[in-house]
Amino acid sequence: xxxxxxxxxxxxxxxxxxxxxxxxxxxxxxxxxxxxxxxxxxxxxxxxxxxxxxxxxxxxxxxxxxxxxxxxxxxxxxxxxxxxxxxxxxxxxxxxxxxxxxxxxxxxxxxxxxxxxxxxxxxxxxxxxxxxxxxxxxxxxxxxxxxxxxxxxxxxxxxxxxxxxxxxxxxxxxxxxxxxxxxxxxxxxxxxxxxxxxxxxxxxxxxxxxxxxxxxxxxxxxxxxxxxxxxxxxxxxxxxxxxxxxxxxxxxxxxxxxxxxxxxxxxxxxxxxxxxxxxxxxxxxxxxxxxxxxxxxxxxxxxxxxxxxxxxxxxxxxxxxxxxxxxxxxxxxxxxxxxxxxxxxxxxxxxxxxxxxxxxxxxxxxxxxxxxxxxxxxxxxxxxxxxxxxxxxxxxxxxxxxxxxxxxxxxxxxxxxxxxxxxxxxxxxxx
Length: 431
Hints:
Blueprint: E1 6-10, H1 24-31, E2 35-39, H2 45-49, E3 53-57, H3 65-76, E4 80-84, H4 89-93, H5 97-101, E5 106-108, E6 114-115, E7 126-130, H6 136-142, E8 162-166, E9 171-173, E10 178-182, E11 187-188, E12 193-199, E13 205-209, H7 223-237, H8 262-266, H9 301-310, H10 354-358, H11 361-379, H12 387-401, H13 412-430
Parallel strand pairs: 1-2, 1-3, 3-4, 4-13
Antiparallel strand pairs: 5-9, 6-11, 7-8, 10-12, 12-13
C-alpha cells in the first residue's frame, strides 16, 4: 500500500452517500485498511497533499474552478480519485463532475439503467447485471471468489457473474480510459459502460462508477458487490494489479442512443418544427415544445354564450353531424373465365389384363377354347351344348381373329360363313 494511507471522503457538496447514513458497511470495510478523513469544507490542494485518495460519492452541488484544478493536480501528482454517481447523472444531481472527468476520457450520461423484466428485485431500476464484467483480469479474479453466479452452462464463464447495479447511470468512455464493467446483454441500455478506469504515468488513478448505490448497506451484502468493492480498492490503492491490452480486446460496447420522454411529449403536441429551422437546437429538447399551443380551455365559454344573446341568435349545443363520404368506385368487370377441366387420369396399371395385351393370337384363341370347354365339363353333360354359349364362343373367336362384320354379334352363322369362304379362297390360291 501507499505510504499515505489516508482517504479523504468529501461531504461538502451534500453528497448522496454519507458514511454515517447509508455507507456504514462501506466505511467499516475501508477503515480496516485506511484512515478516513471527512471533508466538509472546500477542497484545497493543501488537504489533498496529506491524503492518498479522494472519494466523491455523488455530490449534489457544483465544484468551483479552484477545486477542479486542485483535483486535476492531485491526480497528476499520483493521487487516486474515485467518483461515484447515481441515476440521471450530473443533470439530476446538479453537479459538474463531468468537468472533472472529461480530462480523463470519461463522461457520466444523464440516463438510467433498468432491467426490462423481473429478476430478484421488484423495482426495474434495481438492475441485476449478468455478463457485465468485461475486463479479462477482473472477471478471472472474481470467478474464483465466493460470489453469486448463474446456474447455467455458458460458453463464456464471465456471463455467469451476477452483480447488483441499482439506480445507476451509464458512462461514455474514450481513450485513455478503459472499461471495467458494462450493463451486459440483458439490462437496458445494452452493453453500455458503467465503470471506467484511468491510470497515468505518475501512478495517478481515476475510477468512475455510475452507481454508488452498489455499495450501500442494502446492496453491499450481495457477495459479488462485496468482491467488486475489494477489487476496486485493491486496484486504486495498490500497485499489484497491472492491466495489459489483452484484458480489453473482446469488449462489446453499443452506441449510446437517446430516446425522448414519450409520455411527456405526447401531452404537448406541436404541428411542426418549422420555427426551429435555421436556429440552434437547445440542449433541453423540451423547450422546443410550446406549452400553450393546441391547449383546451373553457375560459372564454361564458363570453361566447353571452355573444349569442347580444346577436339575438338562439343558443343550441353543438351536435355531431354524421359525415357522408363520396368515394368513386372503379368500373366493375365480371370475372368470367372459361372453365378449365382437368384431364382424366390414366387407368391404373392393375386394371390392365396383361395376358390379353401381350399374348399372341393363337394363345388367346386357346385360352377362349379352354374357357368354354371347362364350362361344359363343369356341367357334367357333355353331349348337349347350349346354342347361346356356342354363339358367344364364335363371336369371341371372331373378335380375336380380327373378323369384323356388321351383323356378326347377332348372327354367328355369318362368322362361320366368312371363315369358310376365306379357307376356300386360301385353298384355291394354294392349288
